[in-house]
Design brief:
498 residues; alpha/beta; Rossmann fold; L-fuculose-1-phosphate Aldolase; globular
Length: 498
């Protein structure tokens, strides 16, 4: 079984998920909405986009054929391409069947509305403002010498060659349309309310780590602050309600996260050839097996061998989705997230409710990283008794941090592998992001081959999105490393944050 299929099964992701740009293109169906505005630039780009889609195997439906039988909505699963800024009553958002499964691309004949020399926060706020005003998921801005793709996670992708845009369409635009940004449904999460908070459970030193790290992120401004939906401009109250519904009634959007994977009793993996014959037969038929003690056995290929890894429940302390990650209230903003008995589980903080503790847009990626950490630690216990990672996980747990920037390869992190910069640039909370986190982590260790004893974690680059740092550093140490790297690059006149 492929590594991506393993993580999809463990996270109960059932849909067929394309992982390469060409497969994403062939899985995609689009329709071009009736034009709101016609200019030479808009017309030329739309025709060029349509021709490129056709060459790449994207299914293009005439608008009338994209509608439901009632003729009042576009069918779910179809991407809508809007040309120009429309009047309130004519926007495509009024005809979607699903806010999540009808992505809207709006092509605008203008430059992005950024102020001069903008900060990262100003860029993000400007993009979110465009999304809220036009009720679109992906605006594309056309200029004389380039075209720019923007997304809700703050990505700004400048593309050239609008007369022949195939490369940018295939490797930048299509992944953002094929990989749907949908956090786990509330119905798929087990909420447990009224349990002791992190400090009451004895995790006081971990909470202190969160608080110190938050201060570092706040002072350097690299973990972007909360963008309140109340501060955005809307055409009317109806459109504000649409934005609120799309965000699952969050008060706004926050970016980045901090997670502490709690100490885990990790068992050494068993070489496949050493387990009994009946176990080999069962694992060959079904590489993921539920055990009577509540754990899960998984067959994993690594270091040119097959292993049986015993996965216990996964538990983490995590910043609450939507909170200000740089100004935390531990009693409200630090929850316990887990994969418990095969179900995503959230233990709410003492001062929060299940309604306030929505699944993060990064939940799949976070859990994939945590499962990957246990998997690698288990195998390393069998391969090299001196390996650092398993003992750190068992005794002190690991950390996972995400910020909307990228590592400087001239500023290495000892003991950490780097992977992901050649992955398609999908957004957060996509099944693809979980697959790339899990398989990238395992492949990076496979390619390491030597120095397993000093392996402490990985740096997972998510193109057009940011970076996940997962491993033995504390949250404070991670934030301090990013801060030092950022200051080093600023002195050289280069910005490492995206």
């Amino acid at each position: 079984m492929k590594q991506s299929e393993i993580i999809f099964q463990l996270l109960d992701i059932k849909e067929n998920v394309p992982l390469t740009p060409s497969d994403m293109a062939e899985s995609l169906t689009v329709t071009f909405y009736p034009k709101h505005k016609s200019t030479p630039a808009l017309n030329a780009f739309s025709e060029s986009l349509k021709a490129a889609f056709s060459r790449m195997g994207v299914t293009i439906l005439p608008f009338e054929e994209s509608l439901t039988e009632q003729r009042d909505k576009v069918r779910p699963g179809i991407v809508i391409i809007e040309q120009g800024e429309g009047a309130d009553e004519n926007l495509a958002i009024r005809m979607v069947s699903s806010l999540y499964y009808n992505p809207i691309v709006t092509i605008l004949d203008s430059s992005p509305p950024f102020p001069k020399s903008p900060s990262l926060q100003e860029v993000l706020d400007s993009i979110v403002g465009v999304l809220a005003w036009n009720l679109t998921h992906v605006p594309i801005f056309l200029e004389d010498d380039k075209w720019t793709i923007c997304t809700m996670n703050g990505a700004v992708i400048e593309c050239t060659g609008s007369d022949s845009p195939d490369y940018d369409i295939l490797y930048s635009l299509i992944p953002k349309l094929s990989a749907q940004v949908v956090p786990p449904s509330r119905d798929d999460i087990v909420y447990r309310n009224g349990l002791p908070g992190a400090e009451e459970r004895g995790y006081g030193k971990f909470v202190a780590d969160f608080m110190t790290a938050a201060t570092i992120w706040r002072n350097n401004g690299l973990m972007l602050a909360h963008t309140s939906i109340d501060d955005l401009a809307y055409r009317n109250r109806f459109y504000k309600r649409i934005v609120s519904k799309y965000l699952d009634h969050r008060t706004g959007m926050s970016y980045g996260f901090m997670v502490k994977q709690l100490p885990t009793d990790t068992k050494p993996a068993q070489p496949f050839e050493e387990v009994p014959d009946h176990v080999q037969t069962a694992m060959n038929d079904h590489p993921i097996q539920k055990n009577s003690d509540g754990t899960t056995s998984v067959a994993i290929d690594l270091f040119e061998k097959k292993w049986i890894v015993n996965l216990p429940d996964v538990w983490l302390l995590s910043t609450r989705s939507g909170c200000n990650k740089t100004d935390l209230d531990p009693q409200k903003d630090i929850l316990r997230l887990g994969l418990h008995k095969g179900k995503i589980t959230i233990d709410t903080p003492p001062k929060s409710t299940p309604k306030e503790c929505r699944s993060s847009y990064d939940t799949y990626a976070i859990l994939a990283h945590a499962i990957g950490n246990i998997t690698i630690a288990s195998i390393l216990l069998s391969v090299d008794a001196s390996a650092a990672l398993p003992h750190i996980l068992q005794n002190d747990g690991l950390s996972i941090s995400h910020w909307h920037g990228y590592p400087d390869k001239e500023f290495p992190l000892p003991g950490y592998t780097i992977h992901g910069d050649d992955n398609p640039p999908v957004s957060c909370s996509t099944p693809q992001s979980a697959a790339y986190a899990f398989q990238g982590k395992i492949n990076a260790v496979q390619n390491l081959k030597t120095d397993l004893a000093s392996y402490r974690g990985d740096v997972h680059i998510e193109p057009h999105h940011g970076t996940n740092i997962s491993g033995g550093l504390s949250l404070t140490e991670t934030a301090a490393w990013v801060d030092k790297m950022h200051k080093n690059k600023k002195r050289k006149g280069v910005l490492v944050s995206g």
